[in-house]
Amino acid sequence: MASSPCSNSNFDSGLEIKTRSVEQTLIPLVTQITTLINHKDKPKKSERTLTAIHRVGQAVNVAVGRFVAVGEAIASENQELKDEMGQACFEARRAGDAIARLTDVGSATPAPSDDRVTVFSDRTAMVKAARMLLSSVTKVLVLADRIVIKQIITSRNKDLKDEKKKARMAAARAVLEKCTMMLLTASKTCLRHPDCESARINKDAVFHRMRCALEQVIEIVTEARSSGENKILSASICNGIRDFKYTVESLREDLFSLTPQSLTGQLEALVERTEDFTDSAYTGHEQRQSILSLCHLTRQDTQQLVHTWVGVQQSGSSKEATENLEVAILKTCHSMGDLRRELHNVAVGRASDLLKVHGEQLPLRALKAAGAEGNLEAVADYSRKLTEQKEQLVETCRLLCHVSCTEPLEITCIHAEETFHVIGPQIISAAQTLALHPSSKIARENLDVFCEAWESQLCDMGVLLKEINDVFEGRRGDRKPYLSLPRPGKHSASLKSAKAVKLDAEEQTSMAKLGLELRLLSSDVEAELEKWDEEEHDIIRESQSLASIAYSMYLFTRGEGVLKTTLDLFHQAEVLSEEGLQLCSSLRTFSTRLVDEEKAVVLTENETLVALCQQLQMGAKTPVQGKTATFQKVDSTIQASRSLMTVVASLLPLCNKLIRKHKSERTSLSSPQDWRETQHTSAPVKEDAALNGNNSNGFGVKSLDEHMASLNLLESK
Predict the structure, then answer these.
(1) Is 131 domain-assigned?
(2) 364 and 350, same structural domain?
(3) Could you tell me which residues are beta bridge partners of residue 109?
(4) 645-656 pLDDT, tens digit each
(5) Residue 656 to residue 534: CA distance in whole angstroms
(6) Cellular component GO terms, alphabetically (predicted)?
(7) 594: phi > 0 → left, psi -120 to 50 → alpha, else beta; which?
(8) Are 363 and 385 in contact (CB under 8 A)?
(9) For the whole model, what pTM was predicted?
(10) Are residues 559 and 650 in the same domain?
């Protein structure tokens, strides 16, 4: 570095410090050593000065000892640098001991003429010890940096297969991305109004949250353990119920694997956790009574199980006793399942009600208006209402965490709880700043950013609620990745002059609501497809592709997934329209096997779907210039995709109903194999196209295989 604190001291350390992190770490040590060296020209010291110097020397030695202990621990965990780190730590410890000896009061020599004493008259030894200390400490810091950098590089290309780590990383990334815009406006507000306490509090809160998120990223990258999080996850009711049922069912294999006391203790610990539901002021009386009744029933069934279990242990495993034990096990597991279902309904029901009630964002609007008017009294009033809303959301997230039966969902619930807990006070401090400076444009912008973050988290909570329901109902929501990034050829012809644009945080927030609707529609399509009996039906395959593509577009609105730029989104929209036209072709073929009235209904919906696909395709191909026009195109693309998926979601149950009806009537559709053969032989449009040497599907659209071949060509280039 051009300037270093070491070079500003009164001695030449001979060090070349090239990183700011090392420089900042060395500043306190350099300050302490400089204090000692600055007294080199005054060998005679008073007792007070001597005591102070002694304390400084001892403080340096103690600090070096702690520092070296950390370095040695790092060395023991990294064999490739163990020798270098060990040698540097040894030199640092030796230098620290030397400084402690040179500043020791016992080594001071009394002067013959007065009460003053002479201390470390050997200036050369002190300078030598200081140089050795700084050199060795710097080397330890550099080696530690090398280890951290290596860990980061190693994990940079590592696929996080652990779903728990993925969820934690996604939560940290969401915090950092959203806090970036918050930090910008909060810092600008603080600079514009430096004497405003609420502006400073607002900025400091953003810094603190980003720091916590970065620490979480470091934990994941370096594979450090977070004991606090493990404690939180292990306390969820869903985990407790799963463990309890596993314990009960293990009695079938081994009657002596545990004691009755341990089983009842496990149950009581589980029932105690339900107090988060029953003690809540927001839980209705009927719901509270239902939970308490189910807890009592579970206790009774468990007591009966213990009684039967002890009887079998004492009398032996007769057929009758074994059957009684099996009945007791089933009853206990059943009552525990009823308790889990009731807790799930309470948590999900409350979350749904809150999202409906708070969807209009009345407190936020009122806070903005009161702040812009400079009305501090009104700001205080609406702040109390927002705080109450925040407490409801925080508690609801805690209840959702109890009924989330996977670790990734539990981590997402914890993240949502922390987000509401933090952003609520930040919105209030931003509103207070605006009320104090109602004419400040940056203060108004700052409040808008925090309010948008709140709205975005509400949208995320809606998605989380849907995913928790999917898991509870047995729909895991596992999706096959659908990679459809930009490809050469026909689709890029009209976009050669277009420029890829990344949406900023504000634009992504405004897209969140549309994206959420698209996500829910894709989930509805998947839910309908699970009701179909014929897994190999063309309509199922094409609808699955549509749901997967729509999900990737939803991820784009969140700033996630494989679609990184607006060009990626527009290409994906073209693929969505192509898949939609493929589905239209299959629906037309399907309609030929229907009677007139049924056929008319399907064809009417099919024509609507064709029009939407063509509209989406034309919109995606239309070139635009400028960020505003691009953003408008993104908005229209998402809306058109939503309309397309709405029609698909309504068509699927209709088609499934008709297929089942024809099966029951023992028509030609009774055999899936016959239906597929008929389907492939009754599509004159496809046959004509094949005879003409054209591989399109009758609508002028290339097949999926051709597109995948184009994608492979692009990747090879």
Answers:
(1) yes
(2) no
(3) 118
(4) 999 988 888 888
(5) 9
(6) cytoplasm
(7) beta
(8) yes
(9) 0.52
(10) yes
